[in-house]
Amino acid sequence: MNTEPTAADEMLPGAAIEPLRLLAEDADDLHIISAALQDAILRPKDIIWEPSARRVTLQLSRFCWECGGTRVMSGMQFGDVVAVKSRRLPRSPDNALELLAMDFEPGEAPGGRVLLMFAGGGDLRIDVECLDAVLTDLSERWPARVAPTHLAEGPDPA
Questions:
Q1: Are 128 and 12 in contact (CB under 8 A)?
Q2: Tell me, what's the pLDDT at 152?
């Protein structure tokens, strides 16, 4: 009899799940992190731009799609940052922001722009000399009060 845990066992409530730790060095890597951060919640004050250190750090409450119905505090850091700009993001430090997706627009190789897109149409642009981003879970998971929903675009064809 095989007593090794299976993938299904790891998805059971209460099962131990390793903290997520991801590194992005190209657009494909960033898309994986983007999927992991879909529906993460943060506030403007959770975005820290340190020009002298050339880094941007974000603290987020990540919805754990991979472990069903929980959230975890996560940190994301971008290195080799040369500029940061925001558009239509609330200025109040405690307003909730919901991250929808991230994308990388290549520029002069190996640099480019990381675009963080938020619900409500706001975005944050991070210009980088090269893509160097890290995501890691920082806390224990807790039950999410509400699971994010995504309404279908347009009417249901059925």
A1: no
A2: 55
CA–CA separation, 42 vs 94, rounded Å?
Answer: 9
Q: Which residue bears the tokens 């994308």?
A: 103
Chain position carrying tokens 């909730």: 96
Give me the residue label for tokens 């119905």: 69
Burial (0-12, 13-18, 19+ Cβ within 10 Å), 37: buried
Quick: pLDDT tens for 80-90.
Answer: 999 999 999 99
Integer Cα distance of 87 and 67 in angstroms: 33
Contact 72, 140 (CB under 8 A): yes
Whole-model pTM? Answer: 0.82
Neighbouring C-alpha atoms within 13 Å toward the C-beta of 92: 4
For residue 111, pLDDT over 70 is answered with yes
Cβ neighbours, 10 Å, residue 34: 22
Report d(CA 20, CA 22) in Å as an integer.
7
Q: How far apart are CA 113 and CA 98, in angstroms?
A: 20
Neighbours of 97 (CB within 10 A): 22
